[in-house]
Design a protein that fits this description.
This protein is mostly beta strands. Helices cover about 5% and strands about 45% of the residues. The longest helix has 4 residues. It holds the Pfam family CheW.
Length: about 170
């Protein structure tokens, strides 16, 4: 009888919401797609490695694998994260040229997993962002507040990663 008014100009029904993990970093709210996340671990002691870029805080032993740990705060050109009770390391897997690489990223606190439909994602701002705009995938709207959706592959770009080394044995 009546036409569905929502069908005009809306995103196609095949575009489902994407899930993102939200976290705090330096007073700002960020999010990364959950498909890149392997696990979240408690912040613990890191092993320093000489001659690493400033954002690389060290490495951890994760079930026998050496995993580099990046301080996102330092990567964004700010002072390094000061570890607190809720500080975590989010273990992610990202593409490094022809292979996948596991990297840990330090965050102040992990919040929650949220669904963000495509129509609630705005393009990154062209200026005024507190981090490089090429690090931003978009600005997601969650409960009336903007969340910075990170382009994790770019944030953890090749020049800031440790080269993958073969496992001993």
């Amino acid at each position: 009888m009546s036409e569905d008014k929502r069908s005009h100009g809306a995103a196609p029904a095949t575009q489902a919401s994407a899930q993102f993990l939200t976290f705090q970093l330096g007073g700002d709210l960020f999010a990364i797609g959950i498909l890149t996340i392997k696990e979240i671990i408690e912040y613990g002691e890191l092993t320093s490695v000489p001659m690493m870029p400033g954002a690389v805080r060290g490495v951890i032993n994760l079930r026998g694998a050496v995993v580099p740990v990046i301080d996102l705060q330092a990567r964004f050109g700010k002072s390094p994260v000061v570890a607190g009770k809720r500080t975590c390391i989010v273990i992610v897997e990202v593409q490094a040229l022809d292979e996948r690489q596991v990297i840990g990223v330090i965050v102040d606190a992990v919040n929650e997993v949220v669904d963000i439909p495509p129509e609630d994602i705005e393009p990154p701002p062209s200026f005024g962002a507190r981090i490089r705009t090429d690090f931003i995938q978009g600005m997601g709207k969650v409960r009336g507040r903007f969340v910075i959706l990170l382009e994790l592959e770019r944030v953890l770009s090749l020049e800031d990663r440790l080269p993958a080394e073969p496992a001993p044995g």
